[in-house]
Amino acid sequence: MAFFEKLLGNVKARRELNASYKLLTTYQPHFRRFTGRLYEMDAVRAALDAIARHVSKLEVKIDGAAQPKLQTIIKKRPNEVQVWSQFLARTVTILEMQNTVILIPVLNRSMETTGIWPVLPSRCRLLEDKRGEKWLEYKFSNGEIGAMELNRCGVVVKNQYEDDLFGEQNAALDDVLDLALMQRQGIKEGIRSASTFRFMARNTNWKDPEDLAQEQENFTKRNLASDKSGFLLFPNNYDGIQLIQSKPYTISTDDQRFIKESVNDYFGVNDAIIQNTAAGAELDAFFDGKIEPFAIQLEQVLTKMLFTETEQGYGAKVHVTANRLQYMSTGDKINFISQLGDRGMITINEARELLNYTAIEGGDVLPIRGEYYFVGQEQPAPEPEPEPEDITEPETPAEGAENGDQN
Q: What does each C-alpha distance from 118 to 14, 90, 202 come to in angstroms?
């Protein structure tokens, strides 16, 4: 069974789907792409790439003993063609671009879940079958159409307002991106205008518009043909010849900065995050405000997708986490290890991992300094102090002996 066929879902049931339905609001549950090609703007691409790089470092773990076969597969990879870092990066990119990302299960011939795949919500629509069960129909770039029960899919959203399931579009960025586009076009026109010359002249020797049109055509043939030398030749019936000076307008540096900061603010990044210069508290704040909310929602959606409520009640859960200590600077890491490494709070290998060193044999132990004890633990009796040595003072010489007997 080819991997693509595993994404099509229940083909037989899909053929029975009938009319589309509306949710509680009056808005139709479908999407349309941003006509200005949002992802093609360099400022947007840089912001999304920075987010995707950090999200790709998240780790996906599973607790509980439910569905061991599925757990074995999911722990290694989300599907047959992606690793977890690729899956996480694409998932968050779709989310940032369309404020919604839909996760569908990858099924085998027995209709059992063997993986997860992200799909574009702009290619999806909601349907219901004759029994009233809700389905999600999705279309791939090659034209193939698949369908899956909505309760087997996962929906990760942001900027959710009017729609009951999905997030809003990025129309709030339209004006800013229009300014950025006009800025680029202005720069191009400025370069093009600077490399050309334009003249204007007056010709009063014509009787009707047809004569003027014929004169324009003749002038073009005489001067602008591809085999000409580049010199403009004006006949003597032209006067008032003037060179047109083009002064294209480009926005100021402050305006350019405003456009860039508007994009960064919208996606929750800054220049330090984009340029990989953020560290310490700044990087930790980015994790708290941007990465962690996505991780929390994703782990809840995946848990709901992969495990039943009964299995969840017995502890089955997906964790999407990150080693937040990796966001610390090298100096902070060393200080952290020195403060906690001798108190039995981290193992030797955990300290080595923090510094990007490989684990060593016997390193999964918790070192602790000898003078620390647990609260309430009986402390060993102190060792007895050694008895002082018996030192005999030298005898005091008799009076007068020091100077000798003078008699």
A: 19, 8, 65
What does the block give as tokens for 239? Answer: 């006067």
Is residue 78 in some structural domain?
yes
Cα–Cα distance list, 178 to 35, 59, 98, 187 (Å): 11, 38, 18, 14
C-alpha span between 23 and 164 (Å, rounded) = 7
Number of domains in the chain: 2
What tokens appear for 32 in the block? 């349309």
pLDDT tens by residue, 367-385: 777 665 555 666 666 667 6
Quick check: is 35 in a domain?
yes
Of 57 and 249, the structure prediction assigns the larger pLDDT to 57
Whether 214 maps to a domain, the answer reads no
Domain-located, residue 92: yes
Residue 365 sits in which domain range? Answer: 328-374
Contact 352, 363 (CB under 8 A): yes
Answer with the one of 170, 192, 211 that is the final residue of a domain: 170
d(CA 29, CA 6): 25
Angle at 149 between CA 143 and CA 153, to 5 degrees: 85
When pLDDT is cut at 50, 70 and 90, the band that residue 31 belongs to is very low
